[in-house]
From TrEMBL, chain A:
Cross-referenced CDD domains: TM_PBP1_transp_AraH_like
The keyword Cytoplasm is assigned to this record: no
MF terms (GO), sorted A to Z: transmembrane transporter activity
Origin superkingdom: Bacteria
The species this protein was found in: Cypionkella aquatica
Membrane-crossing residue ranges in chain numbering: 37-57, 63-84, 115-136, 143-163, 183-205, 226-244, 250-268, 297-320, 357-374
Record's function text: Part of the binding-protein-dependent transport system for D-xylose. Probably responsible for the translocation of the substrate across the membrane.
Locations listed in the record: Cell membrane
Predominant subcellular localization, coarse grouping: membrane
PANTHER family: ABC TRANSPORTER PERMEASE PROTEIN YPHD-RELATED-RELATED, XYLOSE TRANSPORT SYSTEM PERMEASE PROTEIN XYLH
Name of the protein this chain belongs to: Xylose transport system permease protein XylH
One Pfam family of this chain: BPD_transp_2
InterPro entries, alphabetized: ABC_transp_permease
TrEMBL record, chain B:
SUPFAM superfamilies: P-loop containing nucleoside triphosphate hydrolases
A Gene Ontology molecular function term of the record: ATP hydrolysis activity
SMART domains named in the record: AAA
Keywords tagged on the record: ATP-binding, Nucleotide-binding
Coiled-coil features, chain-numbered ranges: none
Domain called ABC transporter: residue spans: 16-251
Annotated protein name in UniProt: ABC transporter ATP-binding protein
Signal sequence range: none
Length: 409, 269
């Protein structure tokens, strides 16, 4: 067999077989390319501790509640991943979600606007605000830290103004909206079917990629490894669905969140837009010289972040069955940002995945949920969440130094 | 030196021809009446002291600055280069001094940055094959194209930058100080690359402060001084001639006398 294109250099060792794959993984971790490892380990520790302290924590129905709670802030965290990717920040996502929540109350409940229009308006307003932040940054050089900080106050004001004297608008119980936020569960057959899809996609895409790589004389992964990976993923997902089905099952709202995460993951890893996002986050000047529309990338990221924040607000209105002055205040802002960082998206830009929003928010909600089960009040919850965030940033920072010294960027 | 000049082919088609190019920044004339010809398959070195106008000239050719007066002909047709994109489309690629690579992305992603195949569903296989083809044409020694740029040495990064400039099949490639900040072996590697690019039939414009590098690869050495042409030399020109043209300390009675004395002293010993 002729020499493969990418295996011509004798200096590079290439992983072959299962043991090689494991060794390559360990080498990557040692050099500081941690990926999702810290958050998975952290999650295992947190779940073990809470289960030991109170076995109810791991009960199926508690986990279903946990997933309901994850979805609202998780959607906001997904937007935060976009701006962190560029090394920017949006501090106003909490207020933005509050405005989104208030829009639903005012437009849908008070003004009688059809629900889809109300949701669309809220999300569009979010996108508009994001475009304003990006324009301030692009045209006036205003750091996003400051523009979004002023946005935080201004949007909070807008939310209070919209809600007016009453301060809170209840969403009608029994409406589809509230049921979606509190009750609606995927039918069992559907959740099992959906759990099968990732493995199948992995197998089909993986096989066709491998075939194309072989045809192009590039090294290709082993089919055994691919099948193992697909089977393992399928079994894990089926187990999760089975366990949740012992309780109420998989919430629709969580399914929506996961769908958004998957869409974002595709956009970030498989499209030119995602490649450009990483390039701008890594070296904006290099990206500009390569002909990337850097301003356009900033606009898209900020618009996406604020629009997702508004959508998160809409979901939280459904979850709480009300649009109140409290929506989006308190710890929502910081939880969303912390989730993205805990999940492994770097604060320094150019590095992150959509899955970090999913993993990070599960960590944060697990802490909140576990401490509530232990009858501990929010004072302790804030302290512990703060400590976890600090640890996550320290891990990110150390991993970055290690990557630099191992030459992995 | 002598056997190298034998292997050198006659210059190919005239690619780029500048006539009377001037560039003013307010009251300052950065370039005055510059003439320059670039043929296919030749390396033209652009040398000059700091402030001689080398970088300005490169920026005019890269479409970053527009000339205040003068004409540019590309393959016999008069052209204007209004933007970097226009220069790229004509087939003039530039490798900037600070390499402009994204360290967090891998080699393939950097080579195709902004030019990705299949924007909505990136064609990684095709891009990887093309990347290897480009790198192999340069006989580059990159261990793996799936490692981030941060793991590569300076010479390897320069290789990636050059490979990227070749992606769009340019006619001319401009290198702004390609060997600055490189070690001995890496410099040699980059000079090899320059020769390979020339052998592919491209015109190469190379800016350098290092006379040794310039002599090693250039077919012609164009000296700029204070924004004007100050002589065209062959690589056989003596160091003194070159330095004289660069610094403006041209041949005069004083330097001739100093030379004679030095030679006499050399023979005596």
């Amino acid at each position: 067999m002729s020499q493969q294109l990418d295996r011509a250099d004798a200096r590079v060792s290439h992983a072959t077989g299962l043991s090689g794959t494991i060794k390559a993984f360990l080498d990557r971790v040692k050099s500081g390319d941690l990926g999702s490892l810290p958050v998975v380990v952290g999650l295992a520790i947190i779940w073990t501790v809470f289960t030991v302290l109170n076995p109810i924590f791991l009960s199926p129905n508690n986990l279903v509640n946990l997933l309901f709670d994850c979805s609202t802030t998780g959607v906001i965290a997904l937007g935060i991943v976009c701006v962190l990717m560029l090394g920017e920040i949006d501090l106003s996502v909490g207020s933005m979600s509050g405005v989104g929540s208030a829009m639903i109350g005012v437009l849908w409940v008070n003004q009688g606007v059809p629900l889809p229009v109300a949701i669309g308006t809220a999300v569009a307003l979010g996108a508009l605000i994001g475009a304003v932040y990006a324009t301030l940054r692009n045209r006036l050089g205003m750091p996003s830290f400051v523009s979004t900080l002023s946005g935080l106050l201004a949007l909070l004001g807008l939310q209070l103004y919209m809600l007016g004297a009453t301060g809170s608008i209840n969403l009608p119980y029994g409406s589809k909206m509230v049921e979606f936020g509190q009750l609606m569960i995927l039918p069992a057959w559907m959740s099992y079917t959906l759990a099968l899809i990732p493995g199948i996609v992995m197998l089909v895409v993986g096989r066709s990629t491998n075939a194309r790589r072989r045809a192009a004389n590039l090294s290709a992964g082993s089919s055994t490894g691919l099948i193992l990976k697909a089977v393992f993923t399928t079994i894990a997902l089926l187990a999760i669905v089975f366990y949740l089905s012992l309780g109420r099952g998989v919430p629709w709202m969580f399914a929506l969140f996961v769908a958004l995460v998957l869409a974002m993951n595709y956009a970030l890893t498989r499209t030119q837009w995602g490649r450009s996002m990483k390039a701008v986050g890594g070296n904006a000047e290099a990206a500009r010289r390569a002909g990337i529309n850097v301003r356009g990338i900033y606009i898209s990221a900020f618009m996406l972040c604020s629009a997702l924040a508004a959508l998160g607000g809409v979901l939280s209105a459904a979850r709480l069955a009300s649009s109140s002055q409290q929506a989006g205040t308190g710890d929502v802002n910081l939880n969303a940002i912390a989730a993205a960082v805990i999940g492994g998206t770097s604060l320094f830009g150019g590095r992150g995945t959509a899955f970090s929003a999913l993993l990070g928010i599960i960590v944060i909600q697990s802490i909140a949920n576990g401490l509530t089960l232990l009858n501990l009040n929010s004072s302790l919850r804030y302290m512990i969440t703060g400590a976890v965030l600090a640890i996550a940033v320290i891990v990110d920072s150390l991993a970055r130094q290690s990557r630099a010294s191992h030459g992995r960027g | 030196m002598s056997d190298r000049s034998q292997t050198r082919k006659a210059p190919g088609e005239l690619l780029l021809s500048l006539r009377g190019i001037s560039k003013n920044f307010g009251a300052v004339s950065a370039l005055t009446d510059i003439d320059l010809d670039i043929h296919a398959g030749e390396v033209v070195a652009l040398v000059g002291d700091n402030g001689a106008g080398k970088s300005t000239l490169v920026k005019v050719l890269a479409g970053v600055h527009q000339a205040s007066s003068g004409s540019i002909e590309f393959q016999g047709k008069p052209v204007t280069m209004a933007s970097p994109a226009a220069a790229l489309q004509l087939g003039i690629a530039t490798v900037f001094q600070d390499l402009a690579l994204c360290e967090n992305l891998d080699v393939v992603a950097n080579i195709f940055l902004g030019q990705e195949l299949n924007p909505l569903r990136l064609d990684e296989v095709a891009m990887e094959v093309r990347a290897w083809t480009l790198l192999n044409e340069l006989a580059a020694r990159i261990p793996s194209v799936r490692e981030p740029i941060a793991s590569l040495s300076g010479g390897q990064r320069q290789t990636v930058a050059i490979a990227r400039s070749l992606l769009l099949n340019p006619k001319i490639i401009m290198l702004d100080e390609p060997t600055a900040a490189l070690g001995v072996a890496q410099t040699a590697e980059v000079l090899n690359l320059v020769e390979r690019v020339r052998d592919k039939g491209l015109g190469v414009i190379m800016i350098s402060h290092n006379m040794e590098d310039v002599r090693a690869v250039a077919d012609r050495i164009v000296v700029l001084r204070l924004g004007r042409n100050n002589g065209v030399f062959t690589p056989d020109a003596s160091n003194q001639e070159l330095v004289g043209a660069i610094t403006g300390a041209t041949d005069n009675a004083v330097s001739r006398r100093a030379d004679r004395l030095r030679e006499a002293a050399g023979e005596a010993i």
